[in-house]
Amino acid sequence: MLEHVEYILKHTPNLTDLFLWGSWHLLDAKKWESLLSTYCPKLLKFKFSYAGYTFWDDDFIEAAHNLRQDFATRRFWIERNVTITFDADYEHILVRLSIQNINH
Length: 104
What we know:
The chain contains 4 helices and 4 strands. The protein has 104 residues and is of the alpha+beta class. A 4-stranded mixed β-sheet has the order 1-2-4-3, with no helix packed on it.
């Protein structure tokens, strides 16, 4: 849950690299934007990955669509040159969300 991630980030403000593996429920660009801008002022690299059975999950498909749309239109993500990749292999999808070399 993002509440757990928020708790960790509150207590580690000097993070420069953050790599997480988690649930598709964490695929929310607006929430990540809020967390990273509030708790991670020194963050240089961020990667979030998710893999699971999702081809028949309409909620995941909607979350992935919203994620792509937010990354393409929100200034926070555009300035950080975010990349998102969806790798499909049979019934699995791997989502990688990456930002590097954040310049404020």
